[in-house]
């Protein structure tokens, strides 16, 4: 049964968890001085409004009318009860999924892409450079750039560029320019060579290099940073309203995890309830082939492979880590969002890693019973939800499980062969 919030109930503000955390995040460090990064240096990379959001302690930040008007094209996204999945699993649990695949480019990435494009536009930016793994972020930013009159240039991880040609075509449709990374267009790319499968870290380095050498250009990141997770909280805020309309309180909230934007956007609006003593489990589901949260070390590290970015305090596998060529290209990142990392360090969230076979079995099963083909990234959240539902069955406990289906897999069909 599909449940929508009314259009007027789409949140008018994003939620900023930094206002409520019982601890402070460690600041980004300047790699040249090993001291907190100055705003002046960061202004070369990001526009002023996004830097202000990055460090803001305001609990709610108003969504500009221009961004809201674009959100209304696809928001609110539906919260759907997976009744067929419940029936096949014979679980007493209620399972709901928040379906972000209805966005213009098929994933949750559009939420922050539109916001970042808007703030860059009003700040005088002409060109946005970025990276993309599986292509969801690159296509979302290309769409947002078209909407707000910005050029968008994308470095796409080479293995995904080869695996997912439709993503490249989608970026081109929205006037985005995309090249495989490593490329021969930058010194960073040439360092690795065109036979390298690529990583998000390398693609970030290429995009950053271009920004640092060109005027009127900025860098846009699809995950990890505080302002990106801020924009994605519209997911969790809508979930809260939708559950309230149903008279439900979630027991388990689940999201797939790569850099942290989808997972963070899902669970952050519920953090105050967790801090007040409510028993809510937050589960981040990641691939065993790139186990940042479950196997990574909590320390300062670069967000890219070459060392252009500030040093961030996060769980990391190391900037030189090269993950296997899994189809969930959006989860092939060596680090994790500082906010998500700090929540894990303080034991407010949990993380679990799933292997590719288990993940795709869950995805295929979900597609057959619920009728939606999930993105390989989202499939990790499905695997986590199924595991929690079977646990409820074994324990004979009724509970409400909610996960975010962060995107559809219609451009990823080759992965299901």
TrEMBL record:
<feature type="modified residue" description="N6-(pyridoxal phosphate)lysine">
    <location>
        <position position="109"/>
    </location>
</feature>
<keyword id="KW-0663">Pyridoxal phosphate</keyword>
<keyword id="KW-0822">Tryptophan biosynthesis</keyword>
<dbReference type="InterPro" id="IPR006316">
    <property type="entry name" value="Trp_synth_b-like"/>
</dbReference>
<comment type="similarity">
    <text>Belongs to the TrpB family.</text>
</comment>
<keyword id="KW-0028">Amino-acid biosynthesis</keyword>
<dbReference type="Pfam" id="PF00291">
    <property type="entry name" value="PALP"/>
</dbReference>
<dbReference type="InterPro" id="IPR006654">
    <property type="entry name" value="Trp_synth_beta"/>
</dbReference>
<comment type="subunit">
    <text>Tetramer of two alpha and two beta chains.</text>
</comment>
<dbReference type="InterPro" id="IPR036052">
    <property type="entry name" value="TrpB-like_PALP_sf"/>
</dbReference>
<feature type="domain" description="Tryptophan synthase beta chain-like PALP">
    <location>
        <begin position="74"/>
        <end position="407"/>
    </location>
</feature>
<dbReference type="GO" id="GO:0004834">
    <property type="term" value="F:tryptophan synthase activity"/>
</dbReference>
<protein>
    <recommendedName>
        <fullName>Tryptophan synthase beta chain</fullName>
        <ecNumber>4.2.1.20</ecNumber>
    </recommendedName>
</protein>
<keyword id="KW-0057">Aromatic amino acid biosynthesis</keyword>
<dbReference type="InterPro" id="IPR001926">
    <property type="entry name" value="TrpB-like_PALP"/>
</dbReference>
<comment type="pathway">
    <text>Amino-acid biosynthesis; L-tryptophan biosynthesis; L-tryptophan from chorismate: step 5/5.</text>
</comment>
<keyword id="KW-0456">Lyase</keyword>
<comment type="function">
    <text>The beta subunit is responsible for the synthesis of L-tryptophan from indole and L-serine.</text>
</comment>
<dbReference type="InterPro" id="IPR023026">
    <property type="entry name" value="Trp_synth_beta/beta-like"/>
</dbReference>
<dbReference type="InterPro" id="IPR006653">
    <property type="entry name" value="Trp_synth_b_CS"/>
</dbReference>
